[in-house]
Amino acid sequence: MKVIVIGNGKGGTGKSTISMNLLVALQSMNKKVYAIDADAPQHTLTQYIQNRNFNKNLSKIEYKSMQYDENIDQILHIFDKEYDFVIIDLSCHYDKKTQHIHSKADLLITPITDSLIDTNVLQSTNSLEQFVPGAYAELVWQVKKNKINDKSGSLKWLLLPNRINIRVTNNQKKVIQKLKELSKYMGCIILPGIKDRVLFRELFESGKTIFDLKNNSISTLAAKQEIRNIISYCI
Question: pLDDT digit string (tens) for 102-115?
């Protein structure tokens, strides 16, 4: 079983939408998937899945809405041999519990918008223009070190530019440059990214994902390929 955590120290970066599309994409490849919504109390992914499971024409997603006082080790132990992939949509809290859930991941995917405010949780620069890891990068780095010291495996970290403006802007270039610096120092991988498409936001209420759409418009095909680019790192 492979555990994939979708996490970021900043809210509003599209974690739940990414989680749902990955779940359905993997399911369409005949993989057994399970979702854990650890983003209490809002549990956006839970609502998305409930919308989907209510629709009789769509495949069902098994899930658990994890409460803050529940133990991730016990939950994962129950499902160890039942599923190919468990995807955890994680909150943006900075505490020992969040760090521990990160430590259970084989793969960490961090969606990041093309905003310098969002990149601040990953990296900043001091008065000498030197690289300084942000609070979330520090958390991930500690998890990576602990996994090596504990001999509990490794953590692959993927940075996913998300909701990217289709028109390349100077701000976007600055964000990408910061991600490249982070990759250099922290050993993470920058993915091609996902464009800012209304398509993703329109599907929430119906419970659908882009992989449920039957039309072959250029936008739909491009969006599917963007998600498949992520899948290639998950398999």
Answer: 999 999 999 999 88
CA–CA gap between residue 33 and residue 59 (Å, rounded): 12
pTM: 0.94
How far apart are the C-alpha atoms of 14 and 52, rounded to whole Å?
A: 18
H or E stretch including 147?
helix 135-149
Look up residue 214 and give its amino acid: K
107-112 vs 189-190, strand pairing mode: unpaired
Q: Which CATH architecture has domain 2-114+157-164+190-234?
A: 3-Layer(aba) Sandwich (3.40)
**Cis previous bond, 161, omega within 30:** no
Residue of 49, 53, 55, 57 lying closest to 22 (CA atoms): 49
Using alpha carbons, select from 194, 155, 118 the residue that is nearest to residue 3. Answer: 155
Tell me the pLDDT tens digit for each residue of 199-215: 898 999 999 999 999 98
Query: Are 160 and 195 within 8 A, CB to CB?
Result: no
> How is residue 114 annotated by DSSP?
S
